[in-house]
UniProtKB/TrEMBL annotation:
Residues covered by the Secretion system C-terminal sorting domain: 784-856
Species classification: Bacteria, Pseudomonadati, Bacteroidota, Flavobacteriia, Flavobacteriales
Any Pfam family: Por_Secre_tail
NCBIfam families reported in the protein's UniProt record: Por_Secre_tail
Protein name: T9SS type A sorting domain-containing protein
Length: 857
């Protein structure tokens, strides 16, 4: 019997089925409370144990990723907003979920920015060097695949893939190169892509189902279609208003005008190309989440999220119930063979058949349950059959060649070498299908698109070809940079795809793999870029003392992991790179590059954000924001800037540490960014110009002539100078969540890590931002010498008699290391205690300015 959906029951079912998809349904169930759900599910899952079974680790990961996604969106009381509020408030979609007429990414950004600058993706565009990692990470999760084959030349095949965050990508050369086609909706994502024709010369109408059906993080804005071979997309009339929190499943496209899709409660069908949609099946319950359709001829089978199975023998016009809903908490995977026999697999891995060629077909179990079957609550669950070979996709790919009596792992995400079972296949297979003659298949997984070929039905080590190099859909949590050399050294931490570290390989900057699992936080020693840090979930941390090249796992450090957040924060002191601050159950400090840690006892709860300079330390925790002016010896509480929201990032002015900037979470209209002149006692709202979108992180460009701020949001980056309003920064950045911002001070570039479209940078020279400065000419500029400095003495010779000149000397991450006044004539500065590296000396009288790079050795 299906239970009544009330909040009390919701809590009960979450406790009972923490491994199921119940918590994913909560955003659209009235009365759901984020904080109560977090508490209940974490209690049920227990403490994270990195040595637990693969299944247990996966349960934690799936839930914590969901919790991280919603953390900055819910309001102070834990109420869930509509996930697309920001897209609506920014004018990208209307109240019915349709994007505005003639809107494009280029037109949005050109209207919004006056910098004239264009964002550049800086990689990686291809899978990084494996670096000795046998089951290496890849570029990121895909949800579905579509192919149009060329009659004579396979290299001219046209391929499409869809991504849960990152839109639609198209290749016209069989996967050699790829181009994004839906960047203005990149953060919304796509569940499925299908066409009414397989003819490359007459491709028909391409339909897409939006959202992220498998993970449930991102709901759907409906079904869209393309009439120009996937170049542009327009909404059908199946769209949803901001209050609906709907899902749309994979699609059945019967012809150019006839399409079937599942929603939370209905199976819907259109026969006029999406102008009108009819409910051809109405479920008994609001949260059925119908979908995972499979079609063979006129027969279509569908599952729901409560274990139900539904069947139509007339192309979806009418439906019957094969298995009543409520028999389990997970859906079925469905496929069929060439003879029209349907195969379904339940949550326990048991396969059954449904033979539509019989007069009275019934579900009949075959063989034994799949060994090691793990769908993570239907997050990854698919099935394929060809000429007697059954392939079951979950965390791994497991197949049978004897009707399910014996099973073999043939796509192994834990592959080590040729003695391992199967061949390497990235974890978490979302969809699978046949390709060409023989046993050739495609699948999409959390790493990308694979073509898999078995030489025969008994082959246990198939050939796996990665086909989505160039599909840049990496989901970053964090990025760290240090431009100490011309290589722009960087390291990035990624959801489910470890870390990528930019290292010199044979003299060429190359992205290489750094092992982590989920790469949650990063740091690079700005005095020695060979020293790099990569955090993993729940407080895990490794350090590479000579770069990660040749040392994929680095040195595992002992950290206070108990009570650490899943996505935790690591902060390096801005002028002493040996000092680290870690956001665990409280804030901890290490003075020896992470070897040992001391609890600073801030009392803020589990730490979510850290800002530091000198003895000033600010932390944002689960329970409060706290500040110390003596490096954690004593603490005071920082007042929240907005009564209806919680602070979620902070930036500090290193020249006046009483000046703070903060963002707050949620959708409080007009309340996004705040400024304090008294160390956080009182705040002034400086949100003018911003739409009501989620603000993720604010960063001050340090040591400038005036206030320059950058803001990462759920739809890109905004900037603000002086008293001007906020405006969108640059052109060409997809509308996608910005999780991290870093400033390259020696090259005046902003580097941002996106959640679903990789790593990007843009020039932020002051003149391009509209900052009015008068630069001294080469004849009147101060002479700074020697350069490089090898004796510990830096000379600055002033040509002017102006006695108002001051200087600031800061490092590559903006850390202020020295400042003072300059006299007429020769000024001698002692820099003997400053670490080797690149620095910027900025000299100004408040009207004119000269900024020069200095190398100290």
């Amino acid at each position: 019997m299906k239970k009544t959906i009330t909040f009390l029951f919701l809590v009960f079912t979450i406790v009972s089925y923490a491994q199921s998809i119940d918590y994913k349904k909560t955003p659209y169930i009235k009365g759901s409370n984020y904080y109560q759900i977090i508490k209940q599910v974490r209690e049920d899952l227990g403490a994270f144990n990195k040595n637990a079974s693969k299944t247990e680790i996966k349960k934690h990961k799936q839930f914590e990723r969901w919790a991280y996604y919603w953390k900055d969106r819910v309001d102070l009381n834990g109420n869930f907003p509509n996930v697309f509020s920001g897209y609506y408030n920014a004018g990208i979609i209307d109240a019915n979920g349709k994007f505005k007429d003639n809107i494009s990414l280029a037109s949005q950004t050109s209207r919004a920015s006056n910098t004239g600058q264009t964002w550049t993706n800086i990689g990686p565009q291809e899978v990084p060097d494996a670096n000795g990692y046998p089951n290496q990470p890849q570029l990121g999760r895909l949800t579905n695949f579509l192919r149009f084959t060329h009659a004579t030349d396979p290299s001219q095949n046209v391929l499409f893939v869809s991504a849960p965050v990152g839109g639609v990508w198209k290749s016209t050369d069989n996967g050699t190169s790829w181009t994004p086609k839906l960047d203005h909706l990149a953060g919304i994502g796509v569940t499925d892509i299908k066409s009414s024709s397989a003819d490359i010369n007459n491709p028909g109408i391409i339909y897409i189902s939006t959202g992220d059906f498998d993970a449930g993080h991102i709901k759907s804005i409906g079904v869209y279609k393309s009439t120009d071979f996937g170049e542009t997309y327009q909404p059908t009339n199946l769209t949803f208003n901001l209050n609906q929190q709907e899902s749309t499943s994979n699609l059945i496209v019967l012809d150019a005008n006839t399409v079937i899709v599942g929603t939370n409660k209905h199976i819907k069908k259109t026969t006029d190309g999406g102008v009108t949609w009819t409910n051809v099946y109405t479920h008994n319950y609001e949260d059925a989440v119908l979908g995972k359709f499979h079609r063979n001829g006129n027969n279509i089978m569908c599952s729901d999220s409560w274990g139900g199975l539904f069947f139509s023998s007339n192309n979806g016009s009418t439906w019957s119930v094969l298995v009543s809903e409520g028999t389990s908490s997970q859906r079925h995977a469905i496929t069929s063979n060439q003879s029209g026999v349907f195969y379904v697999q339940n949550e326990n891995g048991q396969v059954s058949t449904y033979n539509t060629t019989l007069a009275s077909p019934v579900l009949t179990t075959i063989g034994v349950p799949t060994v090691g079957y793990n769908t993570q609550g239907s997050y990854n669950q698919c099935l394929a059959i060809k000429d007697g070979m059954i392939i079951s996709g979950g965390v791994d790919g497991i197949n049978s060649d004897d009707s399910g009596n014996t099973w073999y792992v043939t796509l192994n995400n834990s592959w080590s070498d040729n003695t391992s079972a199967g061949s390497y296949g990235h974890a978490d297979i979302h969809e699978i299908g046949t390709l060409d003659d023989g046993f050739s298949f495609w699948n999409v997984n959390d790493g990308g698109l694979n073509f898999v070929t078995y030489s025969n039905i008994a082959d246990e080590k198939p050939t796996v070809e990665y086909k989505s190099n160039g599909v840049i859909v990496t989901q970053l949590y964090s990025v760290a940079i240090t431009p100490q050399t011309t290589t722009d050294n960087m390291i990035m931490g990624n959801q489910d795809n470890d870390g990528y570290s930019l290292e010199l390989v044979g003299g060429t900057p190359t992205w290489v793999t750094a092992g982590a699992g989920d790469g949650t936080c990063t740091a690079v020693d700005y005095t020695n870029p060979q020293i790099r840090y990569l955090g993993s979930q729940n407080g895990g941390l490794t350090r590479a003392d000579n770069g990660f090249l040749g040392d994929v796992w680095g040195t595992s450090l002992t950290t206070p992991t108990a009570g650490a957040p899943f996505v935790w924060t690591l902060k390096m002191h801005s002028t002493n790179s040996s000092i680290l601050y870690g956001g665990f159950a409280d804030v901890y400090k290490s003075t020896n590059k992470g070897d040992t840690w001391t609890n600073l006892n801030s009392g803020a709860g589990a730490i979510e954000y850290i800002e530091t300079f000198g003895n000033n330390l600010i932390v944002i925790g689960e329970t409060s924001a706290r500040k110390s002016i003596n490096d954690g010896s004593t603490w005071t509480t920082i007042n929240q800037p907005e009564a209806s929201a919680k602070m979620n990032s902070v930036s500090l002015n290193q020249n006046n540490t009483n000046i703070l900037y903060a963002t707050v979470n949620g959708y409080v209209d007009g309340s996004k960014v705040f400024k304090s002149m008294d160390g956080g006692a009182t705040w002034t709202n400086i949100s003018d110009g911003l739409p009501n979108i989620v603000a993720k992180q604010v960063v001050l460009k340090q040591n400038q002539g005036q206030e320059i701020l950058f803001l990462g949001t759920e739809i890109g980056v905004y900037y603000k100078t002086g008293t001007e309003d906020w405006t969108k920064l640059g052109q060409g950045l997809p509308n996608v969540v910005i999780n991290d911002l870093e400033i390259n001070y020696t090259k005046d570039k902003l580097v941002v890590g996106t959640y679903g479209r990789g790593l990007w940078e843009i020039s932020i020279l002051n003149e391009t931002l509209g900052v009015e400065e008068v630069k001294l000419s080469s004849e009147t500029a101060p002479v700074v010498y020697p350069n490089p400095v090898k004796t510990g003495v830096l000379n600055i010779k002033m040509h002017t008699t102006n006695t108002n000149f001051k200087y600031q000397m800061y490092n590559v991450v903006g850390g202020l290391v020295k400042k003072g006044s300059l006299n007429t004539g020769l000024n001698t500065l002692d820099v003997s205690t400053i670490a080797s590296g690149i620095y910027v000396v900025r000299m100004t009288d408040g009207i004119t300015v000269s900024a020069q790079k200095v190398i100290i050795k």
